[in-house]
Fold these 2 entries.
Entry 1:
Amino acid sequence: MSAKIIDGKKISESLRLSISEAVKNRKEGTRAPGLAVIIVGNNPASRIYVNNKKKACEMCGFYSVEYALDENAEEKELLELIERLNKDEKIDGILCQLPLPKQIDENKVIDAIAPEKDVDGFSPVNTGNLLSGKPCFAPCTPAGVVEMLKYEGIEIAGKHCVIVGRSNIVGKPAALLMLRENATVTVCHSRTKNLAEEVRRADIVIAAIGKAGFITADMIKEGAVVVDVGINRLENGKVTGDVDFDAVREKASYITPVPGGVGPMTITMLMKNTLESYNRK
Ligand code: NDP
């Protein structure tokens, strides 16, 4: 068997098109959804992410505004900016690109964003609502994973989903989202015993580890669905996922590639959350 490749780029394009249609068809004379993106310092990866987010905003017809703060910016300056944006009626979503320079406490910054504008879904209110099954903005990467599975018509309810990784931005929220979809969920991490055995029992594997080629074909049950969240840059500059793609592809029924899988979905879910925030008003 050779798995069907889940094309995250294609799914993203189709979702962005429907978002831009919704924005175009808004009530005449009303403002477009607005996203504020804050970047602090000169991290090259952060710059690429922020530029991609701005491009996505343009594609979707959103109003977007960028605030670039100096590498040495004080925490107070950033918190005051967020306070202003919390009150800004043109802004539906506020995103502060992480990581932040060390003089700034990331938790304080995340806490400062009004929950109704926290389109990244990292604030304690959204995290709590996700845990208790209430409406919330879910973190974009795991939300993108669920969206891809649904787009492909892959059944989740009753399936055994094994997630490798338990970070606050991917693994843990992925577990909660898959539970919400009625999967039976196992979460593995660096202290898991017999990890290969756990993964072999999965109907759906979500790999979010950050180690190139960590998930090998012998860990995969014949016909399993394999979602690769990992982004690893190899010494030769190539970007690869956490899954040994070529070998796993021969056993899985569906697989996401890296690049072109989960990556493009993350920004699209940010657009979706921003539109939802706008629609709630
Ligand atoms: P973290 O480093 O925060 O978490 C990695 C997780 O993997 C941890 O829970 C860790 O376990 C677990 N892990 C590490 N080594 C092992 C091991 N040998 N065996 C079992 N588990 C292990 O990473 P993130 O969750 O932030 O990101 C994961 C990957 O996803 C990265 O490659 C990242 O670049 C990518 N990513 C991709 C995004 C996208 O848009 N596609 C967005 C965000 C991340 P423990 O908790 O025990 O330490």
Note: The pocket of NDP is lined by residues 141, 164-167, 169-171, 188-192, 195, 208-211, 229-232, 262-263, 266 (CB under 6 Å).
Entry 2:
Amino acid sequence: MSDISKILNANLWDSDPELWDLIKKEKKRQVTGLEMIASENFTTMPVLQCLSSCLHNKYSEGLPGQRYYGGNEYIDEIEILAQKRSLEAYKLDPEKWGVNVQPYSGSPANFAVYTGVVEPHGRIMGLDLPDGGHLTHGFFTGNKKISATSIFFESMPYKVDPETGLIDYNKLLECARLFRPKVIVAGVSCHSRALDYKKFREICDEVGAYLFSDMAHISGLVAAGVTPSPFEYSDIVSTTTHKSLRGPRAGVIFFRKGVKSVNAKGEKIMYDFESKINQAVFPGLQGGPHNHAIAAIATSMKQASTPEFVTYAKQIVTNAKRLSDGLQSKGYKIVTGGTDLHLLLVDLRSVGLTGAKAELILEEINIACNKNTVPGDKSALNPSGIRLGTPALTTRNLKEKDIDVVVDFLDRGLKLAKEISNISGPKLADFKKVLHDNPDIQNKIAKLKDEVTKYSEQFPLPGYSEY
Ligand code: DSN
């Protein structure tokens, strides 16, 4: 074989053992740990096969039938299939809804929506990041505009009630009346309750705003019909496809089209989102679509339309409720008192722990989660809670009885964190020092990690190769 042929045809494991070794280590981490990051999942073999297919090779700027390059006969068919299946997965009438499947992921999708329908420095309201919103819904701090949404547009946050943890819709209305936003975003990254889309619609109608729902976290639950759908009340809906939907790392935007209303003279007023959003995605913000990801969207939307997926989505919620009940029975405070969805937020203030310490100890015992602000937290840099989700564990076929075992692991891990904190005092640096240097603590961590590892290994990732 010539040198060039060797490079072109070699297996990754032969041509780049250094990288291959790292991939295998990551695979081992995924198999031997409990993945409880609420936004993560293990995607399916068909999705992975699309992602590593020849579709990756093709440039296809533009939309099907209107490409800037030749050779897109099959790419067009694939994108049209992805569009059709995306509408079908959410039972949308193609006369009334359009869809763009090209956004690279959720953040570019959201920025394309703002770029398309809000003028520069136009006004946007979204749930504040520390209250469970997303960066792209307009996050800024007292001295810095953090998200590009707050740099290129004017954003104003709405909040949750610090006592109940629930969205304060009255306050949102009051602020919206003053701020007069062009867009109100209904969407969350860390909120365990279903949103009241009807109420959002009423508020939008009163202040003349578009209702833009970002259903990224819950799009699998919406497709399965196990949580209220944003489509009935929204003008525009975006989603990532890799969270509860279990598809590829990508984004999708749905927008209303067709007749919006008929005026007094009998003239039809049409929605005008389609060209604005399509043009914002390309050529406004992106270049060539990721065709391998678009194919993977197509196959994951097909999966999401099956009875098996409904069973999966129901189990995600059942598992999250069981997790919440189990933790509450062991004395932990769950923000809002429980969950309707796939995640929950544990408020650790009453047990004298911080989110950072909890995240750290759980990582030490092979449980992945993330520290998170809880309502009323003074500092976003030192949050008081952890966010736990069940989509990934449910993909690995954990059921209620298994969640009880997970609750026990979490409780033992958090009690160990408390023991360390009692020795170290409040500072995280001192906590880390005790965690790493104290032989008794190290022994306890090693024992618990071993139990978690052995338990996790009983739940293989179905259909997966060694990478
Ligand atoms: N990073 C995601 C999450 O964890 O919620 C949101 O994009």
Note: The pocket of D-serine is lined by residues 39, 106, 134, 189 (CB under 6 Å).
